[in-house]
Every structure is written in structure tokens, then in C-alpha cells.
Amino acid sequence: MTGDALHHAHENLAAALDDLAATARNATDTELLSVLTMCEGLTRRIDLLATTAVAALDAQGAFLTRGYRSTTRALSDLLGWDHRHAHRHTVVADAVHTRTTLDGTPLPARLPATAASFTAGDIALRHVEVIARVLATPAASRLAPPAWSAAEQQLAADASRLDPTALQTLGTALIALLDQDGAEPDDDSPPPVNELRLTRHRGGAGGSLTGRFEDPALYDAIAAVIDAKAKPLTADDHRTAPQRQAEALADVCGYVLDHDDDLPDTGGRRPHISVIIRLDDLERRARAAMLDFGGTITPAALRALACDAGVVPVVMNGAGQPLDVGREKRTVPDGLRRAVTARDGGCAHPGCDRPPSWCEVHHIQHWSRQGATEIDNLVMLCKAHHRQIHHTGWTVRIRDGLPEFLPPRWIDPQQTPRRLPPALLIA
């Protein structure tokens, strides 16, 4: 193709795209859906053309003669692509286009079935990248040539009906199934690294957890528990996935503290709060509190924790010297807790199915505001909904002997009361 012919083809393509754009401006929604389909088809054809050019330039050594150490680096520099996008084109060009040996002998594409689907426009660039990556793994390299070829054909066929993420999952499972013997045992392989670091925030509340689990069984156990407890509790649960996962981990740890009698004495009990309080503020209850590991907490968090916890008051004088350290006293006695459990049957928030063993007892009128520790001022809540009550616009009240919840106005402008059906409360 001469330079003039190339320029003419480019002008025709640009004019066609301009016509398509002009038509789309006044298109119906059905026609716009067709435009999207057309754009995807055009993108696949352009990607085919681009990777064909990359493969030819690579075979000719054009990038090397221009001083580039790799095709990926050349594409990044010449076209302004990021490394990942450039690498994707390099991988696909190497996988689906014909090659030649040093003496000029033509060779078929490395992934012939995938190449046929890509050329026909049945699959996209990302599909090809996934197939190439799956078939380049150590597990795939252990397959016999017939099994490897069959896997490539299977993945090329499945790619036309799956998105790249699903194709990656299927491909990994397929290779694992075919590679039943696995790698040769390596007695000298290093043990997996499993570590977890807890770092308390300096001068503030809380801390950070960073971990690394190379042992798949340990990681799977942690992930399985968090996944099971991190699902949205109700349709009004607007926490992000990271927030739900973080609170799920804390909830699981809290459950163990509450129920595992085999833990050491320093941990096997409900949270203990050391309440630091000035003597002249004693009548107004706690103004600040410290946890053994978590640092100082806000008044709202203190109220939530103290709803159903062991509290150890530490009275200080004006010079900061302790005057008295009281004995632990449980805020909600066990007998009263059983009565609340019998009434609520678990978390009383509508739509929540957490059982009593995963719940705490909340003072509707806060203890810091002289709220009584009696059944008409108590409600059972899971830890997530307990935090929600203390930190958001949700409120709860007892009406006709049963708990009733009022959502904030940003959820329901009318703030229509909500409660569990009576049958669920009785159960």
C-alpha cells in the first residue's frame, strides 16, 4: 500500500465515522444500542489491524532498529499508551498472528483457534490476552500437546460467551483439572510466609492491620469467614464493601471474645472499658475513655460499647492522679439480657437475620443520659446495626412492647416506622 492509498483509506474511515456520529445524535434508544454494538465491532477490527501491524513491525525488527529494547516500550513511547495497554497489544500480536523463522519459514499462530475467533470479530483483545496468560502458566506448560491444544480450542469457544473475568476463572479451573498431577514435589521449597501486623495510630484512636498469607488454607479460612459476615444486612445497608469487610472482621473477633472460654484471661471476656473521668464530672458520667489497644474513643463510640460491656470506672483528680478504680460491673445483667433475647430473637432491625449470639443489647435512652437498664429501654442489635444507631440518623423506640425503627430522612423523607413481623419476633 502506497502512502497515498493509506492516506485515502484513512480519510474514508474518518468520513464514515463522522457520518455515524452525525446519525447517532438524533437516534432513538434502540438505535443507540445498535451504535454501541457497531462501536464494539469496529473496535475489534481496529485492534486486529493494530496487532497485525505490531506483529509485522516486531518481525522486521523495526522497533529494535529504532533503539527500543522491547515492543512494549516502543508502543508506550510512540503511541502514549500506559505499560499495561502496550503489553496487552504485544502479547496478542505474538499469540494470534503468523510468524516466520530466521530462514523465512512461515509458522502458524501460537493460538490458532483463538486467532480464528479474533479475526472473525467473535472475541475482543482482552479475551485473547486472558487465553494467552492462562496457557502460559506453569500448570499449562505441563500438559501434553494434545491436551494443551484442546484447552486452547475450548477457551476460544467459551470466550465468545464470557466476559474476560469469567473466562479467566474458567480457564484457571480448566487447566487445574487437566493438570491433575500438579508440579513435581519440591522438598526444598521455602515455607509459606504468613504475617499480620497491628499498628496503633499515634496520638489517635484505632490502628491499622496489614497482612500477608501465602498459605492458601489460612487465607481461605479468613476470607470465608469475612465473606460470610460481610454481606449487606438489609436493603438500606449503604456501607461499601471494604467497610463491610472491616466490620465483619471486628464482629468475628468480638464473637470469639464473648463466647470462647478457652481464651487467656486477658481476652476471653466482653470488652472492658477504662473510663477516665474527672471527679467533678462524675455525675455527668464519662467524658472520655481508653481501650487497652485501640486508644481513646469518641463519646458516641463509648456509648455504643458501654451498652453491653463490662465497665471499670477510673476516677481522676484535677492533677490527673487516680482516686479510685472501681470493680467491673456489667451494664445489662444476664437475666435481663435473656428477657430481651426472648422478645427480639436476635437483631431487631427489620431485614436483619443475625442471631442473638452475634448481637449486643442497646440502651435506647443512653446510659449517659440516665437511661434505665430495663426491658422497655433495651433492644437487641447486631454490631453493625448497633454502630448504625449510634452514628447515623436511624432511631429506635419501643412501641406496644416491641422495637420499632425510624429511618433517617435521606432514606425515607416520611420516616415511616419499620419493625420486624411479629412472627419473626416470636421465633
UniProtKB/TrEMBL annotation:
Record bears the keyword Magnesium: no
Highest taxon of source: Bacteria
Protein name: HNH endonuclease
Gene Ontology MF terms in the entry: endonuclease activity; nucleic acid binding; zinc ion binding
Domain HNH nuclease: 335-387
Keywords of the record: Endonuclease, Hydrolase, Nuclease
Family designation: Belongs to the Rv1128c/1148c/1588c/1702c/1945/3466 family.
InterPro entries per UniProt: DUF222, HNH, HNH_nuc
